[in-house]
């Protein structure tokens, strides 16, 4: 074989030692043709039964074999271990029979790389007048079809992939090429997008999905370009995945889709017989996530809305204000129902809930559209008034409280409930930000509660200091409960006829690092914070422990223990008393429980059953500070009261005829009802003498004995 691509291969020379004109013409053709041509001659002694005679330059470029490499080689010189021998035999059989044949086989270049070769074989007819000295010849045209073969393989796998997806997934799927052309779709995709073709949206095989996104989809421009850039970057292999939640607005409904695009290289077929789909394309899926979006919207609504009233909750207020335009001025009205617990205790929580819904409706009906109405929880409501000053908010608050006070027919009109409310007002002139407004309005509202409820109170900086003080007191009380900082002092109760001490009243004191505090400094905070429960439990237990010591020492003093009205709202106090009596081996008669008239009156409906249960233990029940409230005398008959303690204001004013008349009447009433009566606040011998003349024989006051840590008998 010569160095030139179109030269003779092998040791057979042309007749007479010179190339004929036909031979020169053949070599010129083989040199210039762009096709990879090889001419073979039959040779039973060569490998494969054939040998190369001529090859084109393009053949050498295709295979990498030089002229010297091809000398003496046969037809199967490029075959490899995975070359399909059956195709070779079919090709050779056709040629031997004088027929043309073609086939695609996997062959190997000189450098060992494989390629798919489309071989076209045809016999060469030399004519009878010039018989060939070499025997039968045939020509083979070799074409590298690896790319086409790979494209076909990818296409087959894409179709198999989509066929598999169509059988296994209930959502839309399509395969795109690197330019966005839709190659194949599953049935879900075809059904959905096929129905939209009439509407001018082209998204079926053969259409360009990127063009559809750019020009046909109803998308905002920013979203449109974001989608197209994401799809293109995945299809061209610059990123693995792209996803977007997309809201599709149809003619009669809104549908949310999870739009995902995944590079083919990242997708493995679930079918173990199928290889991974090759690169150069992407899978687009559209999953209907409308139910999920609806659930998310409902969860968000629930997170930002009060479920009972439908108003915004605190989180909803903060969220709404975060997205609202800023305003130069704003004010808030914080409304808290007065003694709402009485409604729940008297009528049940269902009626209480119905009342809250009614109040929410009334507030919402009064305020304008720009205001935000919020339920803060429990029986608290807030009205946010953008653009309002403190004076504006006060006017609004008065109107709102009037609406709240109006009787509310509940349970279909079978129950009518009327409540009052207290409002706190704060504005941005003194408060910065919604949290500060809420804090300051809350401080004003609590001040209104302290001043008698059923009123509007405006925040001032002094209230902040007061609120800070209350918070400090609450934190201190919590520490005091844990570190046992409370102590009891005892004041004697005297039989004014004999001078004998018959009882000791246990009075709570708080031993702080700064000194001893009386209940007036902290009791209201204890009640509002709920700390009255653990404190009250300790007081009752400690007082009965001390009573047991007195009895052991031969002093059968009854111990008087004060209760807060809140302690009478459930029967927990009954269990505490019963356990304390048992722990100290005391009879119920060794204790008298005191509650003030003003504490009992607001809670009397819920407390009556608890009072009966306490009385059943044998304990005495005393109405403290009697005569200064609005206690109905009928309650003295209905409730198991055993003692009245006349308020000190009447004792201090005995020089006035009206006070004398009241004390005399109370003494007579007590005798008629078989109640003990005690005069409080006795500080002078004249008061003692006067009280005795009016028929009161039991007294208590500084004249008879001051409260001390270790109980001592009183002195008349």
Descriptive account of the structure:
With 716 residues, the protein is α+β, with helices and mostly antiparallel strands. It folds into four domains: 15-144, Beta-Lactamase; 150-294, Beta-Lactamase, CATH 3.30.450.20; 309-459, Reverse transcriptase/Diguanylate cyclase domain (Alpha-Beta Plaits), CATH 3.30.70; 476-700, TIM Barrel (Alpha-Beta Barrel). The chain is 40% helix and 24% strand. It contains 24 helices and 26 strands. The strands form five sheets. Strands 18-19-21-22-23-24-25-26 form an eight-stranded mixed barrel. A five-stranded antiparallel sheet has the order 2-1-5-4-3, with helices on both faces. Strands 7-6-10-9-8 form a five-stranded antiparallel sheet, with helices on both faces. β23, α21 (633-638) and β24 form a beta-alpha-beta unit. α11 (340-347) packs across α12 (349-366) and α17 (532-552) runs parallel beside α18 (572-583). Residues 1-19, 129-134 and 266-279 have low confidence and may be disordered.
CATH homologous superfamily classification of the largest domain: EAL domain
Global structural class: alpha+beta
Q: Helical percent range?
A: 40-55%
CATH topology call of the largest domain? TIM Barrel
**Overall pLDDT level:** 84
Low-confidence stretches: 1-19, 129-134, 266-279
Q: What characteristic shape results from the CA principal axes?
A: elongated
Major sheet: 8 strands, mixed, barrel
Tally of domains: 4
β-strand percent reads: 15-25%
Task: Enumerate the strands of the largest sheet in spatial order, edge to edge or round the barrel.
Answer: 18-19-21-22-23-24-25-26
CATH class of the largest domain: Alpha Beta
Structural Rg: 51 Å
